[in-house]
Amino acid sequence: MDPTSFGLWGYNLGAYAAMREAETDKRVRVLVLDSVYDEPKQMVKVEVENTGLGGPFPLWCGSAELSFDWLNYQHKQDPPLSKRLSALAGVPKLSLKRAINRSLRN
Question: Which of 8, 19, 29, 94 is most buried, judging by how many CB atoms fall within 10 Å of its CB?
């Protein structure tokens, strides 16, 4: 591996972390991003809702989001990734988004 030039691949929150790292590390020459969120708190909301607990426990989603915000308070003012894409100019990116098609699930 060439330590002066490499690519990063990330899935979900890992894709978010890969983009954040590539903003400041000029050694990153390519990104492959699978199901990246614009902000980490979006992932928390989606994942909690996907558990199905939002219906029987309506405060579950709000509690999870509030806890996440509290734990990540130092990053509260960080702009979403979509506002910082100019920092990645010249870095090739492949973005993948998972298609949820319940009829294809077995």
Answer: 19
